[in-house]
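queue> pop job 88
queue> type: inverse folding (structure -> sequence)
queue> payload:
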């Protein structure tokens, strides 16, 4: 495994992030524990989750699965850089109650204690804002975070799904208050979705945030979806985001060109999608959310995959980026 520092911090993290969103909804507890053991054996030390994972009536279930894994001992917790998130309402559908979601000081205090209990740990290494809160002053958010840091409940704060100007606002406010500020941004970023290159990633680099791309294969679109359809028929056909995208003939032509290129070079699409992100400036590591051990093994292989200049150039031709701001939309 290869490692890097998370943004401007001294924290060393693996260049592959283990995403746990499927633990519970798609992968049972025993298999989830096996995947986490295998990830740790492979040197993956950066695990990402969120308080709402488990979804629906089972919100919090994913954190509970991590908690029972940590409780097994064997230095599991000590070896893991643990990241979770706060924002979503944890109440059951239809039972939402004021101050049980978003980023008020009250909800941050309540949410972190609940996450610590589910995770069976005394601290969270990276506590991330899952979304912007347009109603809560940034000063209030930093006040709450600074208290948690002083209490030893969290070490660092990060953002997720922030616009570039929100990253700037958050860290300029933190600087004024004497707070450390955001150290990471978790954003949607992959070959098929490169808008983050306009402003989010430049802002993250300017303020010393590590970039953690989520959905690195764009919901399976970059994982060889057309080939799987051809080989497996309806049982392995695209679904969700992939199906919606492939309904667009232009997108389908792009994905076909992508798969043809990689077949020519003897490369696996899913591994290339991850490996490409590892070549991008500012990227700490993509989040891989395996449902199975085989998917984890594929993601681990991507860390050592070196893409030739020829392949990188061809990928840029198939999936051209927007370019930086303001040149992307002005002169």
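queue> result:
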């Amino acid at each position: 495994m290869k490692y890097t520092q998370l943004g401007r911090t001294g924290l060393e993290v693996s260049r592959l992030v283990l995403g746990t969103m499927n633990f519970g909804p798609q992968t049972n507890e025993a298999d989830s524990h096996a995947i986490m053991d295998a990830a740790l054996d492979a040197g993956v030390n950066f695990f990402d989750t969120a308080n709402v994972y488990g979804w629906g009536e089972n919100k919090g279930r994913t954190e509970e699965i991590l908690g029972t894994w940590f409780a097994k001992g064997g230095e599991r917790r000590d070896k893991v850089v643990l990241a979770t998130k706060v924002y979503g309402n944890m109440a059951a559908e239809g039972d939402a109650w004021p101050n049980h979601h978003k980023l008020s000081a009250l909800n941050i205090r309540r949410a972190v204690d609940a996450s610590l209990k589910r995770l069976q740990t005394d601290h969270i290494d990276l506590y991330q804002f899952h979304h912007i809160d347009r109603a809560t002053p940034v000063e209030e958010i930093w006040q709450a975070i600074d208290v948690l840091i002083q209490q030893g409940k969290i070490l660092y704060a990060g953002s997720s799904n922030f616009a570039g100007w929100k990253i700037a606002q958050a860290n300029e406010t933190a600087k004024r208050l004497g707070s450390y500020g955001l150290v990471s941004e978790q954003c949607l970023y992959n070959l098929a979705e490169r808008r983050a290159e306009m402003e989010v990633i430049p802002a993250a680099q300017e303020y010393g945030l590590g970039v953690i791309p989520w959905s690195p294969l764009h919901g399976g679109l970059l994982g060889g979806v057309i080939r799987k359809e051809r080989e497996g028929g309806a049982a392995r056909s695209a679904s969700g985001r992939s199906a919606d995208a492939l309904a667009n003939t232009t997108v389908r032509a792009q994905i076909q060109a992508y798969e043809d290129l990689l077949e020519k070079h003897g490369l696996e699409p899913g591994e290339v999608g991850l490996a490409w992100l590892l070549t991008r400036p500012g990227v700490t590591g993509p989040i891989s959310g395996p449902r199975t051990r085989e998917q984890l093994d594929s993601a681990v292989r991507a860390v050592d995959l070196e893409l030739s200049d020829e392949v990188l150039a061809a990928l840029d031709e198939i999936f051209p980026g927007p370019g930086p701001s303001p040149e992307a939309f002005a002169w």
